[in-house]
């Protein structure tokens, strides 16, 4: 089956072309085309994965372009990582396709949406089976293009248009780094093949500074794509796209591409301690930075967006701590629970018609299934024991600790606390308490939307067990061809992680849940317990005034850093370019004598340089 | 080496200087030598003894220009034809064919002008 | 010269030129003899067929050995063949555009449109394979003068008149500079034959002569910068592009520019490559002057891309984009890697495809309302999805997104700039940075097409000629983007244009 892996991306591509040409006539049937295509992709990908589990890496390629001695090739490669990614991407994409049928119902550009989804999925699937950097780069750009089209799907909204452009141009900034790094590698190694690059790293053809330089440059590309600090600003804005798109972008495609790239090039990073440290620091900082911003957001999708940024930070931290297994593991579990959270959020938005969590509440009763599923996702992302997020996050903590990043470890722990807190803040505000929205007819979403969520919920719980210290590290063993040695981590680490996440949930409950739930329930039935809890309430107050206040302050600070410093630098550059453009336009005054003068001055300058440099430069 | 090359330009430079200085000098001399007693009648503009009655920049019949252009073209043709005719024996067949093509092209141009009614006055 | 010598020449190598000149003559006669009330649009088809035949003839000439006839004034070498193919393809596409050109006020001189374009094309072809300064100059002027008239062919349009006048004046300045440079070269070497000039230039060991030769280099380069519209001779471009009829704009931006690059390459490389110099490389004047070219290339990219940000008129925007693209091509020249000509040729090919496609769609959109404002493209996707996707492909290619010919072209140039020893890192960085800037305006159009509601909902019908162009260009753009090996395989038979200097 592995030699057929190249066919996996082609189904969504076919769906893209078909819907582009005939979509208008097919209308609702477009959804089935898209679903069928991704489902077949998923089946083939699973077969490939099954094949790869027992077999070894398969690679096929042929010469694409020969310029002199340099030969560029195209082909595909099925490594363990690639096969794994194929399955995740096609699965999540299929579920999103299914969900979107309900979510996008009635949109007049229904088929266009499915066409774009097909393109996007194709690009991502193509990306993960590329055997060389150049091909990866091409699909990388295609992913960017797909996200541009999808984020700007609601083009009649000014923000959506701006967000689409921002997403494209911001990631392009990162891509410049990637591009230069790639070219440098090519010039040094003479090939874009991953295998050749790794060989060059090993035998020292690539000097140490060069390894560091190229690794960091390529990491810049990943920073852009995976929304790491400071190029993350496009990601929250990208929420302007339809919610299924957000789920896809945040879970399986686009942002995962950055992590995948670093993981795919991992031997390059391993060879340079500086590069690893850079990755780890950027990841760790992003994790806490974004998590703290998420604490104060009031838009349901923005909270989730910052949460994604933060979780991606975790993955980068894992990579930087030398554990690509932990990163891929977290990528997997995160793909499931983040997709679940987004789809559930979409379900809520679909029902309530707003994204402002201040205007929601009490949805537990109206949409029990969505609420339950959201809860599963929230528990998983918070790292509650026995759910998938717990195991994957634990793996990252362990990696950071074992690699000697003490500070980063504690940062990650604090960020984990934040994560649990903001997720449950969200949960209690949206689903708990009294209804705060208007008397709109709110009801549960149709089965076509809940079914994918159900599947994801099961996976969010179960996916953790493919790699646990208790039952066996299957994923790690397989990804590293049996060479995975699970380092014995201190047993307190798991306990700390569990406590931290439960503490966060508890605090959120105290602050957002209890206010309404506890008041009449507890005081009427158990006055004694109530008193105890009332005392707890002092703790609550204490927390609110110390931890809460400090956290809030940090959160605000980071938010303003984000708003004014990062965006400020971006607008400064924009303003400079704009000013130059205005100047240039003004020079273009339509006077032919000006044009002549420019020419003559130009010539005179050149001649003057020639004269003054005593000949020529 | 270069100075030899540049020296050839000295004479050009001298001519340039003379060319500029001569009119400037003459006019300046005239200004100093002539009496300067203006009155109103002296300062009026006149054209061939007549008082001007409108602006001197008037729309011009484009046909003057067309004729001038055609004249120049055929004048140049003659300039080419004469030396060719004189040296016909030496130049031989190749030049004959070339000249034939040249004349043919010009005839084509003439036909064009004719058909486009350039040759007709008004 | 006797009949014998005359017949000994291999006139066959000039077949494409003869076909073009013959078609132009026949067309002008037909145009004159046709009754005034007859539609002259079929003439464009005849011209198109003529160009197509010439194209086939050129392909037939590819196996021919390097030949030079007429005392080495006309030479057919790999360089000439390769560039002529580009020119003929561009000419054919311009004629198709002209066929479907319908300005609001009508076009009175439609016949002239076709055969003047052929004359301009002929000039461009002569330029690519001339071995002598005189024929080169004559070809250049034939190209220029025909273009001047073409630009002003919409006689009643104020903008067109303005554009034509500006074009003539700037063209005059350019010609003066070029001739001035040529006169220096003639003065130093005493011959107009390019190959002999190269031999003589090698003997110029005296430093002060070399200084004058360097001066001539700059004069030539700045003069020729007019044709390729690079800094400092780029200012005319937007005004002229905007005023000229769209087919002429497309012609100027592709055919005229390709011819310009052909002269720059042939003249500068042949004459200056082996001339001794005082600069950083004493064995080659060309390498010594590399920094000047690099500087101008950088300035061109910056100016073109940055000022394009402010444009609302599509034609002006494409004009600035055309300046920017000329800058990218100049990077290829400035780098002077051994794949220089190959990569420039490929770039011009990609540019031909994507630009003609874009202009074809632009022409359809702007003729409708006699406006080329960017908002004309709003909601194109709703009106005609296929056209929108085709335009999307052209824009992506212009922006250099992978999967399109534009990417491969830029890629090759970029690689060439880094491949040399030492690499041109600054130039490559400028290229990347300005490319990123260019995304802003290309994607501005993209946003209009896909993300804006349509002002009018009438569906679009594309006339046959434009359809042909759009289809050919879109397919070509994608084909050479996905399998650039085809073009490189084709170029392979020219063996990196090694017969250039022989």
TrEMBL record, chain A:
<feature type="transmembrane region" description="Helical">
    <location>
        <begin position="176"/>
        <end position="194"/>
    </location>
</feature>
<feature type="transmembrane region" description="Helical">
    <location>
        <begin position="275"/>
        <end position="296"/>
    </location>
</feature>
<feature type="transmembrane region" description="Helical">
    <location>
        <begin position="137"/>
        <end position="156"/>
    </location>
</feature>
<dbReference type="GO" id="GO:0008137">
    <property type="term" value="F:NADH dehydrogenase (ubiquinone) activity"/>
</dbReference>
<comment type="similarity">
    <text>Belongs to the CPA3 antiporters (TC 2.A.63) subunit A family.</text>
</comment>
<feature type="transmembrane region" description="Helical">
    <location>
        <begin position="6"/>
        <end position="22"/>
    </location>
</feature>
<keyword id="KW-0472">Membrane</keyword>
<dbReference type="Pfam" id="PF00361">
    <property type="entry name" value="Proton_antipo_M"/>
</dbReference>
<keyword id="KW-1133">Transmembrane helix</keyword>
<feature type="transmembrane region" description="Helical">
    <location>
        <begin position="245"/>
        <end position="269"/>
    </location>
</feature>
<protein>
    <submittedName>
        <fullName>NADH dehydrogenase subunit L</fullName>
    </submittedName>
</protein>
<keyword id="KW-0812">Transmembrane</keyword>
<feature type="transmembrane region" description="Helical">
    <location>
        <begin position="451"/>
        <end position="472"/>
    </location>
</feature>
<dbReference type="Pfam" id="PF00662">
    <property type="entry name" value="Proton_antipo_N"/>
</dbReference>
<feature type="domain" description="NADH:quinone oxidoreductase/Mrp antiporter transmembrane">
    <location>
        <begin position="130"/>
        <end position="419"/>
    </location>
</feature>
From TrEMBL, chain B:
<dbReference type="GO" id="GO:0048038">
    <property type="term" value="F:quinone binding"/>
</dbReference>
<dbReference type="GO" id="GO:0005886">
    <property type="term" value="C:plasma membrane"/>
</dbReference>
<keyword id="KW-0520">NAD</keyword>
<dbReference type="InterPro" id="IPR038430">
    <property type="entry name" value="NDAH_ubi_oxred_su3_sf"/>
</dbReference>
<dbReference type="Pfam" id="PF00507">
    <property type="entry name" value="Oxidored_q4"/>
</dbReference>
<keyword id="KW-1278">Translocase</keyword>
<keyword id="KW-1003">Cell membrane</keyword>
<dbReference type="InterPro" id="IPR023043">
    <property type="entry name" value="NAD(P)H_OxRDtase_bac/plastid"/>
</dbReference>
<dbReference type="InterPro" id="IPR000440">
    <property type="entry name" value="NADH_UbQ/plastoQ_OxRdtase_su3"/>
</dbReference>
<protein>
    <recommendedName>
        <fullName>NADH-quinone oxidoreductase subunit A</fullName>
        <ecNumber>7.1.1.-</ecNumber>
    </recommendedName>
</protein>
<keyword id="KW-0874">Quinone</keyword>
<keyword id="KW-0472">Membrane</keyword>
<keyword id="KW-0813">Transport</keyword>
<comment type="similarity">
    <text>Belongs to the complex I subunit 3 family.</text>
</comment>
<feature type="transmembrane region" description="Helical">
    <location>
        <begin position="64"/>
        <end position="85"/>
    </location>
</feature>
Automatic annotation (TrEMBL), chain C:
<dbReference type="GO" id="GO:0050136">
    <property type="term" value="F:NADH dehydrogenase (quinone) (non-electrogenic) activity"/>
</dbReference>
<comment type="subunit">
    <text>NDH-1 is composed of 14 different subunits. Subunits NuoA, H, J, K, L, M, N constitute the membrane sector of the complex.</text>
</comment>
<feature type="transmembrane region" description="Helical">
    <location>
        <begin position="344"/>
        <end position="365"/>
    </location>
</feature>
<feature type="transmembrane region" description="Helical">
    <location>
        <begin position="463"/>
        <end position="491"/>
    </location>
</feature>
<protein>
    <recommendedName>
        <fullName>NADH-quinone oxidoreductase subunit N</fullName>
        <ecNumber>7.1.1.-</ecNumber>
    </recommendedName>
</protein>
<feature type="transmembrane region" description="Helical">
    <location>
        <begin position="425"/>
        <end position="451"/>
    </location>
</feature>
<feature type="transmembrane region" description="Helical">
    <location>
        <begin position="317"/>
        <end position="338"/>
    </location>
</feature>
<feature type="transmembrane region" description="Helical">
    <location>
        <begin position="113"/>
        <end position="130"/>
    </location>
</feature>
<comment type="similarity">
    <text>Belongs to the complex I subunit 2 family.</text>
</comment>
<keyword id="KW-1278">Translocase</keyword>
<feature type="transmembrane region" description="Helical">
    <location>
        <begin position="386"/>
        <end position="413"/>
    </location>
</feature>
<keyword id="KW-1133">Transmembrane helix</keyword>
<feature type="transmembrane region" description="Helical">
    <location>
        <begin position="209"/>
        <end position="228"/>
    </location>
</feature>
<keyword id="KW-0812">Transmembrane</keyword>
<feature type="transmembrane region" description="Helical">
    <location>
        <begin position="165"/>
        <end position="189"/>
    </location>
</feature>
């Amino acid at each position: 089956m592995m030699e057929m892996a190249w066919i996996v991306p082609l189904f969504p591509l076919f769906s893209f072309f078909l819907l582009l040409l005939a979509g208008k006539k097919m209308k609702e049937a477009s959804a089935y085309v898209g679903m069928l295509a991704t489902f077949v992709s998923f089946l083939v990908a699973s077969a490939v994965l099954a094949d790869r589990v027992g077999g070894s890496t398969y690679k096929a390629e042929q010469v694409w372009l020969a310029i002199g001695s340099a030969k560029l090739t195209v082909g595909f490669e099925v490594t363990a990582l690639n096969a794994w990614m194929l399955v995740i991407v096609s699965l999540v994409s299929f579920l999103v396709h299914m969900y979107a049928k309900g979510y996008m119902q009635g949109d007049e550009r229904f088929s266009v949406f499915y066409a774009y989804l097909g393109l996007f999925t194709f690009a991502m699937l193509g990306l993960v089976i590329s055997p060389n950097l150049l091909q990866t780069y091409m699909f990388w750009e295609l992913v960017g293009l797909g996200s541009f089209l999808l984020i700007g799907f609601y083009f009649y909204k000014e923000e959506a248009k701006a967000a689409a452009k921002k997403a494209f141009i911001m990631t392009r900034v990162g891509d410049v780094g990637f591009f230069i790094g790639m070219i440098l590698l090519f010039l040094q190694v003479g090939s874009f093949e991953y295998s050749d690059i790794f060989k060059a790293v090993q035998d020292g053809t690539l000097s140490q500074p060069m390894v560091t330089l190229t690794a960091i440059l390529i990491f810049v590309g990943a920073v852009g794509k995976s929304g790491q600090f400071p190029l993350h600003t496009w990601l929250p804005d990208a929420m302007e796209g339809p919610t299924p798109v957000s789920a896809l972008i945040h879970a399986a495609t686009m942002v995962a591409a950055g992590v995948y790239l670093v993981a795919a090039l991992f031997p390059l990073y391993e060879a340079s301690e500086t590069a690893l440290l850079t990755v780890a620091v950027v990841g760790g900082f992003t994790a806490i930075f974004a998590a703290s911003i998420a604490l104060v957001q009031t838009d349901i999708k923005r909270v989730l967006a910052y949460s994604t940024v933060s979780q991606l930070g975790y993955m980068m931290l894992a990579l930087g701590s030398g554990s690509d297994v932990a990163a891929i593991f977290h990528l997997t579990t995160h793909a499931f629970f983040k997709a679940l959270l987004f789809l559930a959020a979409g379900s809520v938005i679909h029902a309530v018609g707003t994204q402002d969590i201040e205007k929601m509440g009490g949805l537990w009763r109206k949409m029990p299934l969505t609420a339950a599923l959201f809860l599963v996702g929230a528990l998983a992302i918070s790292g509650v024991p026995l759910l998938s997020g717990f195991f994957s996050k634990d793996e990252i903590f362990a990696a950071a600790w074992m690699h000697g990043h003490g500070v980063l470890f504690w940062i990650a722990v604090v960020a984990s606390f934040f994560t649990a807190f903001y997720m449950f803040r969200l949960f209690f505000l949206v689903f708990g308490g009294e209804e705060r929205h208007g008397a709109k007819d709110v009801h549960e979403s149709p089965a076509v939307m809940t079914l994918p969520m159900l599947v994801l919920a099961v996976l969010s719980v179960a996916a953790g067990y493919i790699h646990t210290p208790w039952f066996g590290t299957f994923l790690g063993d397989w990804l590293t061809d049996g060479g995975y040695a699970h380092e014995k981590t201190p047993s307190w680490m798991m306990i700390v992680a569990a406590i931290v996440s439960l503490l966060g949930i508890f605090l959120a409950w105290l602050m957002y849940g209890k206010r309404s739930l506890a008041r009449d329930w507890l005081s009427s039935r158990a006055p004694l317990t109530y008193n105890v809890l009332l005392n707890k309430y002092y703790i609550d107050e204490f927390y609110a005034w110390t931890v809460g206040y400090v956290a809030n302050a940090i959160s605000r600070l980071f938010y303003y850093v984000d708003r004014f410093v990062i965006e400020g630098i971006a607008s400064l550059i924009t303003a400079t370019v704009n000013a130059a453009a205005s100047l240039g336009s003004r020079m273009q005054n339509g006077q032919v004598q000006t044009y002549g003068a420019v020419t003559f001055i130009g010539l005179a300058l050149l001649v003057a340089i020639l004269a003054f440099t005593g000949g020529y430069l | 080496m270069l100075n030899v090359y540049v020296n050839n330009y000295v004479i050009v430079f001298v001519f340039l200087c003379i060319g500029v200085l001569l009119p400037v000098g003459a006019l300046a001399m005239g200004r100093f030598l002539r009496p300067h007693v203006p009155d109103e009648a002296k300062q009026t503009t006149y054209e061939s003894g007549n008082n001007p009655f409108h602006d001197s920049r008037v729309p011009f019949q484009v046909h003057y220009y067309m004729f001038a252009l055609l004249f120049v073209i055929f004048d140049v043709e003659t300039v080419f034809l004469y030396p060719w005719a004189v040296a016909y024996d030496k130049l031989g067949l190749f030049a004959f064919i070339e000249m034939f093509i040249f004349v043919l092209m010009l005839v084509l141009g003439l036909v064009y002008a004719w058909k486009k009614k350039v040759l007709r006055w008004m | 010269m006797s009949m014998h010598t005359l017949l000994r020449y291999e006139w066959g190598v000039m077949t494409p030129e003869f076909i073009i000149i013959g078609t132009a003559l026949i067309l002008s006669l037909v145009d004159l003899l046709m009754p005034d009330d007859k539609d002259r649009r079929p003439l464009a088809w005849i011209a198109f067929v003529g160009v197509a035949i010439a194209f086939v003839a050129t392909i037939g000439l590819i196996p021919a050995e390097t030949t030079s006839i007429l005392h080495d004034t006309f030479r057919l070498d790999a360089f000439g063949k390769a560039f002529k193919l580009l020119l003929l393809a561009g000419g054919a596409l311009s004629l198709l555009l002209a066929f479907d050109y319908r300005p609001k006020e009508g076009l009175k001189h439609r016949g002239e449109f076709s055969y003047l374009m052929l004359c301009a094309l002929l000039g461009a072809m002569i330029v690519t394979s001339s071995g002598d300064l005189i024929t080169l100059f004559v070809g250049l002027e034939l190209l220029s003068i025909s273009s001047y008239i073409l630009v002003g062919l919409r006689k009643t349009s104020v903008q067109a008149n303005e554009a034509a006048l500006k074009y003539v004046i700037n063209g005059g300045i350019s010609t003066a500079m070029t001739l001035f440079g040529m006169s220096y070269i003639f003065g130093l070497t005493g011959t107009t034959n390019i190959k002999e000039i190269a031999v003589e230039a090698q003997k110029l060991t005296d430093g002060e002569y070399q200084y004058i030769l360097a001066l001539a280099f700059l004069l030539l380069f700045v003069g020729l910068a007019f044709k390729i519209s690079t800094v400092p001779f780029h200012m005319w471009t937007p005004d002229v592009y905007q005023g000229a009829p769209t087919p002429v704009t497309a012609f100027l931006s592709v055919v005229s520019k390709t011819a310009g690059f052909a002269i720059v390459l042939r003249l500068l490389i042949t004459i200056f490559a082996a001339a001794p110099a005082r600069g950083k490389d004493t064995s080659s004047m060309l390498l010594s002057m590399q920094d000047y070219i690099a500087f101008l290339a950088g300035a061109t990219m910056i100016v073109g891309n940055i000022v394009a940000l402010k444009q609302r008129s599509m034609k002006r925007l494409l004009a600035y984009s055309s300046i920017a693209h000329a800058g990218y091509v100049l990077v290829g020249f400035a780098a002077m890697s051994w794949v220089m000509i190959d990569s420039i040729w490929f770039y011009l090919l990609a540019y031909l495809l994507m630009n003609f496609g874009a202009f074809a769609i632009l022409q359809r959109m702007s003729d409708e309302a006699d406006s080329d404002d960017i908002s004309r493209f709003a909601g194109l996707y709703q009106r005609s999805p296929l056209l929108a996707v085709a335009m999307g492909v052209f824009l992506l290619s212009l922006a250099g997104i992978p999967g399109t010919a534009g990417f491969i072209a830029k890629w090759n140039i970029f690689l060439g700039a880094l491949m040399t020893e030492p690499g041109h890192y600054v130039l490559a960085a400028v290229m990347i940075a300005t490319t990123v800037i260019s995304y802003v305006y290309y994607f501005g159009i993209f946003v209009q097409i896909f993300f804006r509601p349509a002002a009018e909902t009438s569906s679009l019908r594309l006339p046959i000629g434009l359809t042909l162009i759009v289809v050919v260009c879109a397919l070509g753009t994608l084909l050479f983007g996905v399998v650039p090996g085809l073009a490189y395989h084709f170029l392979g038979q020219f063996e990196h244009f090694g017969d250039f200097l022989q």
